[in-house]
C-alpha cells in the first residue's frame, strides 16, 4: 500500500508491543526508525546511575536494532528518566550504542520550562527525530498554529547539522479533512522558515 502511494516507512512509535514486535517488519522495509520511551523518573543524584542502568537494559534492543539495520530513538517525556537538560546530557555522555539516540519532543520540554534550543545543542549528532510540536491546546500544538516561533528551533537544528525527520505532531482527535488542512499549513509554515 505504501509503495502504491509513492511512500516508504520511515519511522513509527513502538509504545504498544515494544520494538522487538516490529523489528523484523522495520528491517524488511529497509530499516527505519522506531521510537519508544525511557524509564521512570529519578532524583538528580541518581541520574548517572539510572541512565547507566537504562542503557544496560537496552542492550538486547540495541543488538536487535543492529541486526535489522534500524535505529531506535528514545523520546523525552515529563516525569521520566529523559525529561530535563541534565538528563539529555547524561544520555549523550553515557550512550554506548551508535544506532540509539533521542526523539526530541519540545512540548514536554516547554512544559518543564527547559530550552528547546539548548536540548537540541546538547543532543547534537544523537538527535534522530524531532517532533515539531509545541505546548498548546488542540490544533495550536502544530507549527504555525500556536504561539511558538519555530525559527529558533530550526536554526538550532541547522546549527548541529541535523538532516533527519522534522515531524509536525499533536495529540488529539481531529476530523481527517481538518487535519489535512492543518498539516498543510504547518508544512508551509516550516518551509517558509527554512
Please, could you describe this protein's structure?
With 194 residues, this protein is an alpha/beta fold. The chain has a single domain, classed as Alpha-Beta Barrel (TIM Barrel). The chain is 42% helix and 14% strand. The protein is built from seven helices and six strands. Strands 1-2-3-4-5-6 form a six-stranded parallel sheet. α2 links the parallel β2 and β3. α2 packs across α3, α3 runs parallel beside α5 and α5 runs parallel beside α6. The two termini are 31 Å apart.
Domains (count): 1
Question: Given this structure, which CATH class is correct?
Answer: Alpha Beta
**Gyration radius over CA:** 17 Å
CATH fold-level topology? TIM Barrel
Tell me the CATH architecture: Alpha-Beta Barrel
Total number of β-strand segments? Answer: 6
SSE string, helices as H and strands as E: EHEHEHEHHEHEH
* Distance between the first and last residues' Cα: 31 Å
Largest sheet composition: 6 strands, parallel
Could you state the oligomeric state of the chains shown?
A: single chain
Q: How many individual helices?
A: 7
Uncertain parts: none
Shape: globular
Task: Provide a compact summary of the structure.
By secondary structure, this protein is α/β, with parallel strands linked by helices. The protein is built from 7 helices and 6 strands.
Amino acid at each position: 500500500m505504501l509503495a502504491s502511494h509513492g511512500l516508504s516507512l520511515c519511522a513509527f512509535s513502538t509504545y504498544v508491543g515494544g520494538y522487538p514486535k516490529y523489528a523484523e517488519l522495520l528491517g524488511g522495509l529497509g530499516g527505519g526508525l522506531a521510537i519508544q520511551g525511557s524509564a521512570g523518573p529519578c532524583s538528580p543524584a541518581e541520574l548517572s546511575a539510572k541512565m547507566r542502568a537504562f542503557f544496560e537494559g537496552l542492550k538486547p534492543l540495541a543488538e536487535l536494532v543492529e541486526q535489522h539495520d534500524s535505529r531506535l530513538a528514545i523520546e523525552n517525556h515529563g516525569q521520566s528518566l529523559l525529561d530535563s537538560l541534565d538528563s539529555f546530557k547524561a544520555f549523550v555522555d553515557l550512550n554506548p550504542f551508535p544506532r540509539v539516540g533521542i526523539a526530541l519532543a519540545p512540548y514536554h520540554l516547554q512544559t518543564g520550562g527547559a530550552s528547546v534550543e539548548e536540548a537540541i545543542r546538547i543532543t547534537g549528532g544523537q538527535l534522530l527525530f524531532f517532533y515539531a510540536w509545541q505546548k498548546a491546546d488542540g490544533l495550536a500544538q502544530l507549527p504555525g498554529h500556536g504561539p511558538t516561533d519555530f525559527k529558533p528551533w530550526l536554526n538550532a537544528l541547522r546549527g548541529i547539522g541535523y538532516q533527519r525527520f522534522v515531524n509536525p505532531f499533536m495529540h488529539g482527535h481531529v476530523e481527517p479533512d481538518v487535519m489535512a488542512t492543518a498539516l498543510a499549513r504547518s508544512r508551509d509554515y516550516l518551509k517558509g522558515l527554512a
